[in-house]
Amino acid sequence: MSAKSLAWSHRRTSFKRITMKSKNESFPSKNNARHKGVDMKNVMILWLLVFSFTMLTNQILCQDFLLQGWYWNYPGTEDGHLWADTLEARAQSLAQAGFTHVWLPPLSRASFGSSSNGYDPQDLYDLGEEYGGGATRFGTRTDVDNVVAACATHGIKAVADVVYNHRDGGRPEKNTAVEGWIENYNWTKCQNGDNAYPSDRFRCILPIGGSTGRGTGTYYFKIKSASEHDKFYNKAYKAYMWTNAVGWQNVPDVSESEPNGGGGCGEPNNTITLGRNMLANIDAMGCKIDEFALTLNAGDFETTDTLFISLMNLNGDYSDHYVYELWYNSSNIQGSIEYQTFTDFTKMPSGLGGMNYMNFKPNGNPTQLAGDWDWMWFFYDYDQYVQTTKDVLWAWTSWLWTDVGIRGLRMDAVKHFSYEFVGDLLDNLHDNSMDPTLVVGEFYDGNAFALKSWLDNVKANMDADTKAAIQPRVFDFALRDALKNACDTFGNDVRTIFTSGLVDAAGASGFDAITFVGNHDFRDPGQYVENDPILPYAYILTNNQIGLPCVFYKDYINGGLQTRIDSLLAVHKKYIYGAFSRDYLSRSGSPYAQSFSSGYDHTTILYQLMNTPLARDVFVGINFAGEPLNVTHGVNMASLSSGDILVDVLGRSGTGSTTMSGNAATFKLPARDYSVWVKGVQAKCKIMLEGPYDPDTNEMNTTLNLAGDIPTISPFAQDPRRVSSIPDDIVDWVLLELRSIIAGESLAARSVFLHKDGRLLELDGQSEIIGLSAAPGDYHLIVRHRNHLAAASAAPIALTSNSATLYDFTIAKSQYYNADATLLDADPVRYGLYAGDADGNGQVQNSDKNDFWRNQTGLAGYHSADFSVNGQVQNDDKNDFWKLNVGKGTHVP
Q: Which of 5, 372, 619, 805 could form a disulfide with 677 if both were Cys (CB 3.0 to 4.6 A apart)?
């Protein structure tokens, strides 16, 4: 690296993201020539019909879920890792979980190299191609292609993180527009709101040697505030100078010594040397000038060389200082100074995406370099009103679609450029038959009305046919703030969630929002959700009418929430999608009666989702309190009746189900927990197991329970419910399943307890009414045990939501489908399930003895070869059960 480039790279800084409220600026709508001569009234009527049908169809038929597939400090290529491989390997499991879109990090070559996350885009078309730059942090172009292909194979659309606000890392070029801005800046402009040009975004150069007439000797740099506005006084900066011959010297900084106004002020100056920082402040007193004397000797520069001058402020606290005079050999040569910015992108390795300083602000177009749109928040700020800027960015976006396979856009920092650009971009895509299925803007603001205003203005700048095809959205930072407060702010009234966000505060549509809990920007203490982030995920993943949910990879995988989030996704897809009305039952001032045995109104979220495609109401409860919730709460009875059963489909309440009593139901939750209840059907069932059955008592033994060996979590993966303790007189867990036909799919399954007298009981160990999350209808009852053969009712049984008739498997062989039962007792007659199926594959085989019983013989506890269910694996298990039943199998798949 040359001394020049080393010096400049040493001085370069990254720019911290800052947020502030938007200016109220408006733009004229576009004149769309395509519609001239067309009956626009008829076009609009047709469009409204198509749009309404499309929105309704999309709402009913599908639910999209977005995964942010990376985080700020993800392991990159510079660390010896390949994140692209990580996402490629997970594509299938992500699709199986229900994710429809994966948001990738910015893919373009970045100015800060492979250590960068990509928000400093340099060569837009270099995604790690073989242009000499090697892999980006994410990987090579081949890696990108593999990720996109893997996603597409499994039905996932890749979403690109696109930066339309700024660019960085061009070659240095002369910038007369920046020179004019800096040298013509004055008190009036400052007072009227114009900002000084950021001092870390330019450098000055002075040609020396050769035919310039400038060489050895002393150069006197006079530096002052251009405006002499008091807002800039005493701001710190560092003067740094170097040549191609002398670069950074790696010596301690030196500080100015005041007064140092130099000649003309009657004051001394300070000596500055090449390759060393001079720390100074904008003077507020005296002649308000800093003069630095630089002496060049013959060895300090090459025959033809350049003196480079950097005057960067410290800590991004910008001021308007500049070299207003430069004396050499008794002449003011300030006019020979040139201003350079790193904005020449005309010769990128890809050969594409060319731009120069005229594509960035300031460039002569009206601007104040102020406010959300015009201030240079990050790097070099695009001027999106310049047609060539639009052309380059539109062409790049189209290339991402056609050449890379991107099908969604996450637009970075949309708060900082115009709505018109976004509308025009989407029009351009649609006009070229490219309709991304997900377009979302990152408008970093907690004001829900500001978020909605951005969306409304974007839509106002889209053509009607584009709006019918592409739905722009915005991340709901306002709702996210409310969810974080609910988790992390002690004493917070969590019911404010119901009045927060784009939909419930600002009145936007759920199609306008993307809800989220964490992202790459919330990475420092106090920013991310610190306590139980699963609680806000429970909200955004079950309330389908407030936006499309986005899950953060670091929460999902690194944070250990994958299993719980997957369960919420499954519940959403099965029971919630398509619901188009909701009732926030526990809202402040709720008309529904509440009676709390434990827990509090201000820490409880309870809502009801209605008008689902399955015509079954769904209830969601979230307990933000540090103690259990037990509340009897009134509900919306529009589609319910007293006696209806509500089934806990997540199994987190510990009760299995709750039954409507009048117009209320009792909801229970552990501390800091959640669950989902669905209107279901009631079943009542009795069955016996051959292994533990005792003909002397006509009951089954509970030896396993007495020894404390029954686990508190069900062994059945179909419904792995957990309880705090096992009730008395329980033999073991069993699974009750519903199927409309024996060989059909499982329509509902519940882990329940088996009482010693054969009754199936709810998780409280008392209720004989089992709730199952199915619609009223005729079903085969199927009972499974971990080491007995499964059995089904002989015929379908009519099940309803508010009553149940006992189905007793024990009384006759004819109660079983295909008579799959063994006689346990002749007087009284008792039939039950065959023992001996250690591996649970539906067959009693040699492998049950050889692979399980032999390996477990002599063990005590909860083991699959303990066919007698007495807590001991013994010879009796083989001789009394396996040997008698070997060769038998169930007729239930």
A: 619
Task: Kindly report the number of other CB atoms within 10 A of residue 695's CB atom.
Answer: 12
DSSP, residue by residue, 700-742: E--HHHHTT-S-SB-S-TTS--B-SSPPTTEEEEEEEEEESST
Domains 38-166+382-567 and 579-679 share a fold: no
The phi and psi torsions of 427 (rounded to 5 degrees) equal: -60, -45
Q: Is 678 within 8 Å of 647 (Cβ atoms)?
A: yes
- What is the structure's pLDDT at 7? 32
| 10 contacts: CB under 8 Å, gap ≥ 6 | 248
Locate 694 and state its tokens: 């005792």
**Whole-angstrom distance, CA of residue 26 vs CA of residue 31:** 16
What is the H or E stretch that residue 338 is in? strand 338-344
Structure confidence at residue 300 (pLDDT): 98
Which residues, other chains included, contact 883 with Cβ-Cβ below 8 Å and sequence gap of 6+?
none
Amino acid at 596: F
Give the model's pLDDT for residue 21: 32
Tokens read off for 401: 């679609």
Measured between alpha carbons, how far is 487 from 483 in angstroms, rounded to an integer? 6
Residues 14 and 115: their CA atoms lie apart, in Å, by: 12
Farthest-apart Cα atoms in the chain, separation: 125
Query: What pLDDT does 316 receive?
Result: 81
The phi and psi torsions of 595 (rounded to 5 degrees) equal -135, 110
- Domain 38-166+382-567, CATH class in plain words: alpha beta
Q: Is omega for the bond preceding 121 within 30 degrees of 0, making it cis? A: no
Q: Under a CB-based contact definition with an 8 Å cutoff, are residues 478 and 502 in contact?
A: yes
Cβ neighbourhood burial of 178 (10 Å; 0-12, 13-18, 19+)? buried
**DSSP reduced 3-state for 586:** coil
Provide the sign of the torsion angle of the four alpha carbons 134, 135, 136, 137, taken in this order. negative
Residues 715 and 689: beta-carbon distance below 8 Å: no
Cβ-based neighbour number of residue 608 at 10 Å:
22
Pairing of strands 699-700, 657-659: unpaired
- Sign, CA torsion 706/710/713/718: negative
Alpha helices in 470-614 (DSSP H): 477-488, 501-504, 534-540, 553, 562-571
* Calpha distance 221→203 (Å, rounded): 14
Residues of the chain with pLDDT under 50: 1-61
Q: Give the separation between CA 375 and CA 166, rounded to whole angstroms.
A: 11
SS3 480: helix
The residue assigned the tokens 């987190």 is 652
pLDDT of residue 62: 52
CA atoms within 13 A on the CB side of 543: 28
What is the domain partition of the chain in residue ranges? 38-166+382-567, 171-344, 579-679, 682-885
Task: List all residues 6 or more positions away from 204 whose beta carbon is below 8 Å from its beta carbon.
Answer: 308, 309, 310, 311, 323, 337, 338, 339, 340
State pTM to two decimals.
0.89
481, burial (CB in 10 Å: exposed 0-12, middle 13-18, buried 19+): middle
Rounded Cα distance, 335 and 484, in Å: 55
Cα(556)–Cα(547) distance, integer angstroms:
19
What is the reported pLDDT for 97? Answer: 98
Length of the chain: 893
Cα–Cα dist 554/538, whole Å: 16
d(CA 565, CA 573): 12
